[in-house]
Amino acid sequence: MVNKLVVENLKHRPLRTLLTVLAIGLQVTLVLTIVGLSRGMIEASQARTRGVGADILIRPPGTALIGMSGAPMPEKYVPYIEKQPHVALAQGIVLHGIGGL
After folding, report:
1. 83, 98, 97, 91: which is closest to 58 by C-alpha?
2. Over the stretch 51-68, which tens digit does the pLDDT of each residue have?
3. pTM (2 decimals)?
């Protein structure tokens, strides 16, 4: 009985039925599109992040990166660090402040 009532209502108002079906179809399509785009963007971001690598700065004890202090660190550590696994390049640098704040 309920099914007959539903079918008769759909027949009685075909334009409303068509608009309802189109609206629901559009909403479902938009949700699936947004989910697909967001997943694709996340996967692309992960792939870019995996390929970047990392820059690691090794400083002697008691120095601060913010202050850019030029505390000496022996250059003999460069070859030792370069021999460590997963290290592509190790090099020594000299920081020289230009004065002022």
Report:
1. 91
2. 777 777 777 777 766 665
3. 0.47
